[in-house]
Amino acid sequence: MRQLFVASMLMVGLMSATAAFAEKYAVVDIQKAATDTSYMKSQMAGLETALKPSQQKHEKLTQEINTLRQKAQNDAKIMKEADLKKLEQDYATKMNEYNANAAGMQKRAQDTLENINKTLAPKIEQATEELRKSGGYSAILNRGAVVSLDPAIDLTSQVTQKVNTILK
Predict the structure, then answer these.
(1) Which residues contact 79 (CB under 8 A, 6 or more apart)?
(2) With contact defined as beta carbons under 8 Å apart, do 1 and 9 qualify?
(3) Under 8 Å CB-to-CB from 128, ≥6 apart: which residues?
(4) CA distances from 27 to 20, 51, 135, 158, 166 (A)
(5) Quick check: 135 and 24 in contact, CB under 8 A?
(6) CB-based burial of residue 160 (10 Å sphere; 0-12 exposed, 13-18 middle, 19+ buried)?
(7) How many C-beta atoms surround the C-beta of residue 28 within 10 A?
(8) In the 8-state DSSP scheme, what is residue 154?
(9) CA–CA separation, 140 vs 149, rounded Å?
(10) Can you give the pLDDT at residue 72?
(11) What does 36-77 look like in DSSP terms, one character per residue?
């Protein structure tokens, strides 16, 4: 009787171990999937276009600031007090303009990235869940959490394709 009990417990243990190994897993590099979408590419191109005038202004201000700095270094000893004060005021004005321009570009980029994230995050989640169900996966893990894997279980490109289809 005891042997029958031990044998049946061993069989139950083996069956549950086999069931655990039958689980099917996949991975997705969420960042890459998002970056590779047509939506992200078009939004980033739009951002780049929108920021171009501000970037040009930034470069011009950088040159003007460098010119003022160079003039201060070269001519400060021979300049009159009034001219030196004017130079300092011009420098302060340009620096304020430079900082405001930089802050404006940063805000615009941050707002754009937040909007992209609001749009893409649920779509990536939806695409991943659809792939999990259709592929019979028990779980899909973030690629960054996996140390080593068989490339065959990487669904990143499939998620990107599915999101592109969803957002068309």
Answers:
(1) 87
(2) no
(3) 28, 140, 155, 159
(4) 18, 35, 12, 11, 20
(5) yes
(6) buried
(7) 25
(8) B
(9) 13
(10) 86
(11) TSHHHHHHHHHHHHHHHHHHHHHHHHHHHHHHHHHHHHHHTT
9-54 confidence digits (pLDDT tens): 544 454 544 445 568 999 999 999 999 999 999 999 999 999 999 9
* Residue linked to tokens 């068309």: 168
**What is the pLDDT, as a whole number, of residue 78?**
87
- Number of Cβ within 10 Å of residue 105's Cβ equals 17
Query: Is residue 5's pLDDT more than 50?
Result: no
Angle, nearest 10°, between helix axes 81-135 and 38-75?
160
Q: How far is CA 15 from CA 3, 6, 38, 63, 168, in A?
A: 18, 14, 46, 73, 46
Long-range contacts of 96-105 (CB under 8 A, 24+ apart): 97/61, 98/58, 98/61, 98/62, 98/65, 101/54, 101/57, 101/58, 101/61, 102/58, 104/54, 105/51, 105/54, 105/55, 105/58
Tokens 């304020």 belong to 96
Q: Which of 12-21, 70-79, 156-165 has the lowest mean pLDDT?
A: 12-21
- CA gap 103, 99 in Å, rounded: 6
State the CB neighbour count (10 A cutoff) for residue 123: 20
The three-point CA angle 10-11-15 to 5° equals 120
